[in-house]
Design brief:
The chain is α+β, with helices and mostly antiparallel strands. 22% of the residues lie in helices and 27% in strands. The protein contains 16 helices and 32 strands. Strands 3, 4, 5, 6, 9 and 10 form a six-stranded mixed sheet that branches. The protein has a six-stranded antiparallel sheet with strand order 16-17-13-12-11-22, with no helix packed on it. The longest helix is centred in the C-terminal third of the chain and has 15 residues, at 470-484.
Length: 589
C-alpha cells in the first residue's frame, strides 16, 4: 500500500501478521504463533510509498530476519495492482492475502491448509472480527463475518447461512492455491485503486469451476474506520471503484447486464469513442473462454437461497395502495445502495406507475423454512420496511437471511392488513403513516391492496435462461443437492419424514394457513411447511421449532417456539385434522 511516511512512523511487523502500532521486536512472536512451520515467504508490495519502505522500515536486515521480499511500484496504482504484483511473484503452494491493518489470531492458517488441500480450486476466507488498535489483538472472542452476496447494482452485502459456502467475498482477506491463482488470472490488471475486485474474483471462482468457502475456525481481526485518527487512511486514492465494479459485472453478467441500466451509477455514465466507459474487457473474456466458464444464470441458481428464496428474483413487483387515502407507498431514496444504510417510505400519488420507486416485492427468506419470504423490499434497492415513526415507514438494509424480526412485514390478502405481528400500518387524514394494534384497525376499515403488478426484467431474463439453457440449471442443481446432503442429516426433512410436509389451515377455512410465526395468512406463498413428529407439529427444514400456544387460556393464540414436548405442543391426528388437548383443530394438506 502507498503511504507518505516519516522514518520514525511505526508500521509494525513487515506486513506479515500485524500492522500499525506494533514494534518490530514483536515479529519473532508473530512468526512463532502464526504458521512458522509452513511459512515459505513474506511478500510486501510497496505501492509507491515516499520514501521507499526498503529505505525506512524494511531494510535489508529486516528482510533477511523475517524472510521478507519487498517489491516496489515507482508510482501508486492501488490495492488491486499491488495484490496482483504480490500474487504473481509468490512461489509458495498457497498464497494468503492480508491487508496491513489486520491481526490474524493464532492458528488461523490451519483451516486454510486443510480446505485448500481438499480442493485446489477453493478460495478460502476467514471469519473477520474487530481489532483493538491499542493492543493490536482481536476484540472479544469468536463471532465474526465472512459471507457476502451480490446485488443487482454490483454492490455486496453481508449475510449468513447454515453452510460453509460464500457467494461473494467482502474484500482482500483470502487464501488460494498458487495453481488456481494462475489458472484464473488473478486480478484484473486494468482495475486501479480498490473496490470491485472482490466481485470479479468471486464470479471467476464460481463460474469457472471453483468455489469459495468460509473457514469457521480461522479468525482475522480487522481494523475498522472508527473516527480515531489512527484508523484514518494514509494512502493516495487512485482509480475509479465504479469503473472497477462495471468491469466485473459487464464481463460476467452476460444478458443480465441489461439490468444495470436501472441504476444511475451505470445509466448516467457516458462512453467516449469506440470503447465503453469501463474499458476493454478482452483480458477477462479471454479467461472465460480459456476456462469454458459458466453463464451468470448458473450462479443465480447455485445461490437459489439468496436470489429466489430471499426475493432477489421476485415473481412480481407491485405498488401498495392504502385504500382510504387512495395513495401508494413510495420509497423516498434512489435506486441502488442507500449510502446511509437506511431510508424512508411515504405515501404518494398512485399515478406515477412509471416511477420505479413506487414498486415493492417480497424479500428476506423465512428463517425456519428457507422459503420466500417474510418482508417487503423496495425494488432495485437494498432497503426493506422496518418500522413506522408516526409519519413514514423507516427502511433498513434487508436481512436476506430472515434474521431481523423488525423487517417481518407482509400484506394479508384477505384482510388487507399491512402488518408485522399484531401491529398494522394505517394512514391518518393527513396522509401520515401510523402503526396500531391490528384489532383496532379492522374496526376502522383500514386496508391495503396490491396494484399494477408485473414481472420485472431480472425475472424475465432468468425465466428465459431456464427455458433456453436447462443444462446450466441442471448443473447448478447438482451442487445444490450436494450441499443439502451436508445439512440436517442429508437432504430435506420433507423427503425423509414419514408422512412428508404439509400446510396447516384454520379448521374449515382453506383460505387461511399458518406462516412461519404461527399467524394465519391469506397468501399461500407466505405459509410455512410443517411435519408431524413425536406428537408435535414442527417447522420443516429447521430443527427444534414447534407449533405452540402463546396463551394457555386463549384459543388459537398460535406461535412457534422451541420444541419442549409440553401439553401445548402435543397434537393428535384425526383424518384430515390435527387437534390439541383443548380440542383446537387445524386442517392440513
Amino acid at each position: 500500500r502507498h503511504a507518505d511516511l516519516e522514518p520514525e512512523d511505526d508500521l509494525g511487523d513487515p506486513a506479515l501478521c500485524r500492522g500499525a502500532g506494533v514494534r518490530f521486536q514483536d515479529g519473532e512472536v508473530c512468526l512463532r504463533e502464526h504458521a512458522e512451520d509452513v511459512l515459505h515467504e513474506i511478500i510486501v508490495v510497496d505501492d509507491g510509498s515516499n520514501p521507499p519502505l526498503a529505505e525506512t522500515h524494511l531494510n535489508a536486515e529486516v528482510q533477511k530476519r523475517y524472510n521478507t521480499k519487498v517489491l516496489r511500484h515507482e508510482s501508486t496504482i492501488g490495492l488491486i495492482g499491488a495484490k496482483k504484483t504480490g500474487g504473481d511473484a509468490a512461489t509458495g503452494d498457497i498464497s494468503v492475502f492480508f491487508d496491513c491493518h489486520v491481526a490474524p489470531v493464532p492458528g488461523w492458517h490451519k483451516a486454510f491448509i486443510r480446505l485448500i488441500g481438499e480442493n485446489y480450486r477453493r478460495l478460502v476466507v476467514p471469519q473477520i472480527t474487530a481489532l483493538d488498535i491499542d493492543t493490536w489483538m482481536q476484540q472479544g472472542s469468536g463471532g465474526g463475518m465472512a459471507k457476502c452476496y451480490l446485488t443487482w447494482d454490483a454492490d455486496f452485502k453481508w449475510f449468513d447461512s447454515d453452510d460453509m459456502y460464500v457467494a461473494v467475498i467482502s474484500g482482500g482477506l483470502l487464501g488460494m492455491s498458487r495453481r488456481w491463482w494462475f489458472e484464473t488470472g488473478g486480478y484484473d490488471e486494468k482495475m486501479l485503486g480498490w473496490g470491485g475486485e472482490n466481485l470479479d474474483q468471486s464470479l471467476r471462482m464460481w463460474l469457472c469451476g471453483g468455489e469459495i468457502v468460509a473457514a469457521s475456525d480461522s479468525y482475522v481481526a480487522h481494523m475498522w474506520r472508527t473516527g480515531d485518527r489512527r484508523t484514518f487512511a494514509r494512502y493516495w486514492h487512485v482509480g475509479d471503484s465504479g469503473k472497477n465494479r462495471a468491469r466485473a459485472v459487464y464481463a460476467w453478467y452476460g444478458d443480465f447486464a441489461e439490468k444495470l441500466l436501472h441504476y444511475p451509477s451505470f445509466s448516467y455514465r457516458v462512453s467516449w469513442g469506440s470503447e465503453p466507459w469501463y474499458g476493454n474487457l478482452s483480458n477477462i473474456l479471454a479467461v472465460k473462454e480459456r476456462l469454458n466458464c459458466r453463464p451468470f444464470e448458473w450462479f443465480l441458481r447455485r445461490f437459489k437461497g439468496l436470489y429466489e428464496d430471499a426475493g432477489m428474483i421476485p415473481q412480481q413487483i407491485f405498488m401498495l395502495r392504502e385504500e382510504q387515502s387512495k395513495k401508494c407507498l413510495r420509497y423516498d431514496g434512489w435506486a441502488g445502495t442507500a449510502g446511509s444504510g437506511s431510508g424512508t417510505a411515504s405515501l404518494s400519488s398512485c399515478d406515477k406507475d412509471e416511477d420505479h420507486r413506487m414498486y415493492w416485492h417480497l424479500g428476506n427468506k423465512q428463517r425456519r423454512t428457507g422459503r420466500c419470504c417474510t418482508g417487503l423490499r423496495a425494488w432495485n434497492t437494498d432497503q426493506c420496511l422496518q418500522g413506522i415513526d408516526g409519519k413514514s415507514f423507516q427502511t433498513a438494509v434487508c436481512d436476506v437471511s430472515g434474521g431481523n424480526p423488525m423487517q417481518e412485514w407482509s400484506l394479508h390478502a384477505k384482510s388487507g392488513a399491512l402488518r408485522s405481528g399484531d401491529r398494522c400500518a394505517r394512514a391518518d387524514e393527513g396522509g401520515r403513516l401510523k402503526v396500531e394494534p391490528c384489532s383496532q384497525l379492522r374496526a376502522a376499515g383500514s386496508r391495503w391492496t396490491k396494484v399494477s403488478a408485473w414481472v420485472p426484467l431480472e425475472t424475465q431474463l432468468y425465466n428465459q435462461a431456464r427455458r433456453d439453457r436447462p443444462d446450466v440449471f441442471a448443473s447448478a442443481e447438482q451442487q445444490l443437492k450436494a450441499v443439502a446432503k451436508t445439512k440436517l442429516g442429508g437432504g430435506s426433512i420433507c423427503d425423509t419424514i414419514d408422512g412428508g410436509c404439509f400446510r396447516l389451515y384454520r379448521h374449515g377455512n382453506w383460505d387461511m394457513c399458518l406462516d412461519e410465526s404461527g399467524v394465519f395468512a391469506g397468501d399461500i406463498d407466505t405459509c410455512s411447511l410443517f411435519y408431524f413428529y413425536e406428537k408435535t407439529l414442527r417447522i420443516a427444514q429447521v430443527e427444534r421449532y414447534c407449533l405452540d400456544r402463546s396463551n394457555d387460556n386463549s384459543a388459537e393464540t398460535w406461535t412457534i417456539f422451541l420444541c419442549h414436548g409440553g401439553e401445548n405442543q402435543q397434537f393428535q391426528r384425526h383424518a384430515d385434522v390435527f387437534c390439541n388437548s383443548a380440542a383446537e383443530c387445524l386442517s392440513f394438506n
